[in-house]
Amino acid sequence: MKKVVVLSAVAAAVMMAGAANAAEIYNKDGNKLDLYGKVDGLHYFSSNHSTDGDQSYIRMGIKGETQITDQLTGFGQWEYQVNANRPEDGDSSGSPQSWTRLGFAGLAFADMGSVDYGRNYGVLYDIGSWTDVL
């Protein structure tokens, strides 16, 4: 019986690893605000010293939109990442252990697409998401 309980706990932990979750904070009168996050526990075994070891990270963000008119919507997003292996220090190359991944605001037009400004995914990310079938 004890082995079944341990196996069940391990199976549940494996299924939850790397899962992203979101919570809707506010949604009323065309205004919406979501809080989301992800915890990813990673450990690489490699002969390459730059990728070997703990590569765990935490991502958290907030995303919102507001209906300005029936043809115009304002939107924005901010996302922050903290490497969980040494969050207070930089690594040996001096690179930071926490940073803003995304931070942008924009306008979406009903018939013409959208425009945004800030730190966002680039065009290559969009092309990869359309063409990557795996």
From TrEMBL:
Protein name: Porin
Signal sequence range: 1-22
Pfam families: Porin_1
Transmembrane domains' residue ranges: none
Domain of life, source organism: Bacteria
Main location: membrane
Entry membrane topology: Multi-pass membrane protein
InterPro entries named in the record: Gram-neg_bact_OMP, Porin_dom_sf, Porin_gammaproteobac, Porin_Gram-ve
